Amino acid sequence: MAEITAYRVQDQRFGIGDLLDPERMSFAMSGDDELARHGVSCVEDLSSLAAYIAVMGIEATVPALVRVTGVLSEDTPVDEEYGEVLLIASDAEIVTDDDAFFSLVGDLVDLHYEQGVGFEDLREIASDRI
Prior knowledge:
globular, about 30% helix, two-stranded antiparallel ribbon, alpha+beta
C-alpha cells in the first residue's frame, strides 16, 4: 500500500511520538468512545485542514501543525466529508514555519463566524491563498 502525506493540528504539549504507534486510536472531540477509530486523524491537504479547523475548531492550548506520512487505516474517518483520513503513521514532524497557515485559519474563522461562509467556500479561499 502506498504511503501518503497529510496534516493535522494538535497541542504541542503532546509531542509527536505517540503518532507513530501502529495501534494508535483517534477519538472524536465529542468524547464519544463509540467513534474511536484506528489511525492518526489527519487531513490530506493544508487548505482542507485550514477550512476544517475554521468550521470544527480544535482543542489546543499551543497548536502545532504536524505533517504525517503513512498508509491509510482500514477504518472510515468520522469527518471524511471534510477530507479527514486515518493514517498508520511511519513518520511525523512538526512544521515550524506555520505562521502563514495559522494566520489563514484566523481569517477563515472570521469569515465562517462573522459572514456564515461554509466549509467548501472556505476551502476554496484557503486553496487560493496557500
